[in-house]
Records
---
Amino acid sequence: MDCEQAQALLQAHMDRELLPDDRPRLDAHLRGCATCRAAAAAYRLQDADLRLAFQSRRQASAAVADRVIAQLRGRDRTIRRRLPWTLMVMSAAAGFLLAFVVFRPWQKSADLVRPEPGRQDDQAALTPLEKAESVVFALAAESGQTCEVLAPNGSVWQTLQLGGKIAFGTRVRTAPSSRCEFQTPDGSEIRLNGGTEVLFADRRRLELARGQILARVEEAAAPFRVSIPNATITALGTEFDLLCQSAESVLSVLEGATRVEGKERWQTVQSGEKAKIVNGVVTHKEQLGRKLDQATDWALDLLKLKGPNNKEVTRRVNDILASIGETKTGSFNEAEIRKLGYSCTTPLTRYVQS
Ligand SMILES: [Zn+2]
C-alpha cells in the first residue's frame, strides 16, 4: 500500500466507512510510515470537534469554497508548486484547529453566562415595560459582570445585572474591564466594549458618548442610527464597529453599508472599509476587507458564547476558512483543489474540494 492509498483509507476510516478487510492493511502501513501516522493523528484531533461543529455548516463551507476558488481564478498562475497533499491538508488543518481554539464552540453550554432565574423579574420591576419595548442586557463576557444604567430623567446610576431590561431613554455605561451585549426589540445586538457610555434613545437610535460598540443590526423599515459628536451613522441591516474618541472616531463596516452624515455632507462607508471621522467628516477611508475583523477582536469574548450556529460566528469562521484557503491553497490550481479533496472526510478537505 502506498501513501495515497493509505490516505484514502484514513479518510474512509474518519467517515466510518472503512471496510473490515482494509483495517489491518492500513495499520500495517501506519506502523511503517511516519507521514501517514502524523496525518492520522491530525485527523483524529480534528474529527470529534469538527464533526460536531460543522454538521450544519457544510453548505456555508461550500459557498466559501466557491468564493475562494473564484478569487484564485483571478490570480496569476504562473508560479505553481506541487506540494505533497498530506502536507497541504495538515498545514491547513493546523490553521483550522487554531480557528476552533479561538472560538471554542464546544464550550458554549459550559461557558454560557445565563441570567439567574428570578433576576429578570427584579429588573423588570425597576423599569416596568413590556418586554417587546425594552432593551435586554443579554450577554456578559465574564460571569458576574454588570453595567451601570441611568434611567430616563434619573439622576443616580444603578447597577444592572445580566438579564436586566431597560427602557428607551436609558443611558448605559461599562467599567473599563467589562464587555456586554444588549439586545433591542427588533433583535439587533449592540456590544459594548469596556469604558463605553451609550444612550439607547429609541428602537433604532443610539447615542454613543464615548467608548466602542459593535452593532449587528437587523433589517427593518426604519434606518438604524448611531449618533456621535458632530455626526450620525445610518445603517440598514448591517454590522459595524464604532470607536468614539475625543479627537476622532473610527468606523469599521464588516457587512452592508453605512452612511456618515456630518453638518454639511454625507459619505458612504461600505463593507470592508474603515473610516476615520473628524468633526463629522470622513477624513480617511481604507479598504481592509477581512482584516477588519481584527478591529472587533474585543467582541470575541461575547461572540464565543453564542455557539457555532450563530450567524456572525459562522461568518467569522467562514472568513477564517477563506483566509486559510487563500494562503494554503494559493499555489494550487482549481482542478487540483477539487481533485485533492475527493472523498475526504474532514470538513476541511470538503471545504477545499467543494
Ligand atoms: Zn504513508
---
Amino acid sequence: MEELLKTGARVLANEPMASHTTLCVGGPAEWYVEVDTVVQLRAVLLAARKKSLPVFFLGWGSNLLVADKGIRGITLRLKGDFISVSFEDSLVRAGAGVFLPTLVKQCADKGLGGIEPLVGIPGTIGGALIMNAGTRDLEIGQVIKTVEVLNPDGNLELLNHDQIRFEYRASSLAGRVVCFATLQLRHQNKDDIIRSVQVFLEKRLETQPISNMNVGSIFKNPPGNFAARLIEQSGLKGRQIGQAQVSPKHANFIVNLGGAKANDVKSLIELVQKTVAEKHGVKLETEVKMVGL
Ligand SMILES: Cc1cc2nc3c(=O)[nH]c(=O)nc-3n(C[C@H](O)[C@H](O)[C@H](O)COP(=O)(O)OP(=O)(O)OC[C@H]3O[C@@H](n4cnc5c(N)ncnc54)[C@H](O)[C@@H]3O)c2cc1C
C-alpha cells in the first residue's frame, strides 16, 4: 500500500467493482488505482511487480463480468492525460481512457466524420482497441492509424496499423498496456455527421435493452449466423437465474434486474450455451470477458 501511495496515484482499498461495471456486478477490487500520467503508470506497474501483485486494466467496465469475490491485486484505471484528446487536421489522438461516445461527438463538432457507427458503444478507447469493438458498419480497427503501448521496460512504443492484427471482437493488442491511439478521420459536413450519429443512437434504442444494466452482446456471432437468433429459437428469451435474465428485448443480452450475482450470470451463460448446442449444434463463444470466474 505504501509503495502505491508513493506513486502519487489515487488508491482505494476494497473498491466494489459493481460500481465500475455497466452490469453493476462484481465484488471488491483489492486495490483500485487511478493514474493520471505515464510516469505514474510506470511507477504503479513497477510497485506491482516488486510486490508480485497482478494488474488488471479497467476501461469503462462495459464488457466485463467480474466475480463476486472481486479482483485480487491492482485494478488500474487510466485518467488525467489518458482522457485527453487532440486534433491535427483529420487525425485525432485520444488517450486510452477517453469514452468512445464522447469522442465521436467531439469529432462531429469539429466536422470530423468516419466513426459515427461507434457512438453507441459505451467503452473507452483502450477497451475498444482490445476488443476491436464495432458494429456491422464499422470496427474501430478500420480507423486506427497508430497505437501507443507501454512496454514492460517502461517505454512507450508506437505501433502502426499494419503491426496490429484486428479480428472480429479481438485484437493482437490483448495483453499490452494501451495508452494512446491516433485515428484517421475525414472532414465532412458537421450537420450530416450529427444527423448520422442520431440515426445510429435511435437504432440502438429500438433494439437494445438500454434501460437495464447489461454488458452488450454476451456471445460472439458464430460464422454465418446470429447468436441472438439461435438463443431466441431455443426458447430462451426471458429465461432467468436469480436476478439475471436473458433480455426479452434482445436475446443476446443478459440484463441485471437488480442485485444479480456474477454466479447467476455465469450460470445463465452456461445454460444458454448448453441449450443452443443441444438444439442447434452450435457452440456459442462469449464476447464478455470474465474476470476471476
Ligand atoms: C449497451 C451496450 C452496448 C454495446 N454495444 C457494443 C457494440 O455495438 N459493439 C461492440 O463491439 N461492443 C459493444 N458493447 C461492449 C463494450 O462496450 C465494448 O466491448 C467496449 O469496447 C469495452 O470497452 P471498455 O472500456 O468498457 O472495456 P472493459 O470492459 O473495461 O475491458 C475490456 C477489456 O479491455 C481491457 N482493457 C481496457 N482498457 C485497457 C487498456 N488501456 N490497456 C489494456 N487493456 C485494456 C480490459 O482489461 C478487458 O480485458 C456494448 C456494451 C453495452 C453495455
---
Amino acid sequence: MTILRGLFILEVAHESHINSKGARVAAHKTIIQPQTVREFQEMNAYIYGKVNERYDDPDLILRLLEEIAKIMEIARKDELEKLPSQLARTYSWWNAVGNRFGIDLQEALWVKYPGVCPYCLRGENCACAIEHPVISDREKTLRRLRMERDKDPKTLAGYQALHKRLYFLQNRRILVLHTAAHLGEEAGEISKEARHHNKKGLEDEMADVASWMFALANRCRIELAEEVWRQYPYECEKCHLAVCTCECSDSPQAS
Ligand SMILES: [Zn+2]
Ligand SMILES: [Zn+2]
C-alpha cells in the first residue's frame, strides 16, 4: 500500500492479472481517504459488499445488533479501553446495513437531525427532558431546515461534532452505561422497522443509532472518523485485503 499526501490518498492492490510475460501484476486503485459519511459508506461497500452477500437481510441486521450488544457488554463491564475499536466495528456494520437496504446514511442523518434536535428544535444543548416538548408546526420547521443543505456537516467528523453540540451537555448527566442502553433501545427499533419492511422507519432508526454512537464517542472522547479509518483503511481488519475474502468461519469484521 502506498500512502501519499499524509494519508489522504492511497493506492491499494485491487486485482492482479497475468501480463504478457506470464508474471502476476497487481493492479492498483487510487482511493481517497473518506471524509463524508457517504464516502465512509462507499468504503464499506468496497471492502465488504461482496463478502456480505452471504448474509440474507435479517442476518445482516442481526450482525449489527450483535455488535451493539457487545458495546453494551463493554459498558456493563466498564471495559472502556475496548470501546474505540468496537464502536468502529459497529459503525462498519451500520454501513453494511445501510448499503444492503439502499439507505443513503448521510441523507438519513440530515433528514432526522437537520442541524437541530428534532424534538425541541434547539440548535445546541437539547432541552428535551424525559418527555419531548410539544411544539406546534414542528414538522413544518423540520421540513424547512432540511432544505438548508449548506448546513449539512457532510463529514463524519462534522456529524459527530453536530451531535456533540446538540447532546453533549444532556448526555453528560447520564452514565456511559445508560448511553449504551439508549443505543441498545434504538437497535430494537431497527429490528422492528426491518421486520415490517418499513424503509422510511428504518432510515429514521438508523439515524438514531448513529446519534447514540456519536453520544458514546463524544462521552468517551473517541474520534469516530479516525477510529474507523484506523481499523478499516480501505482494507478488512482481519484479512487486510481491500476486498475482503474472509471465509464464513472467519466472521469478517468480527473480533
Ligand atoms: Zn431536544
Ligand atoms: Zn476479510
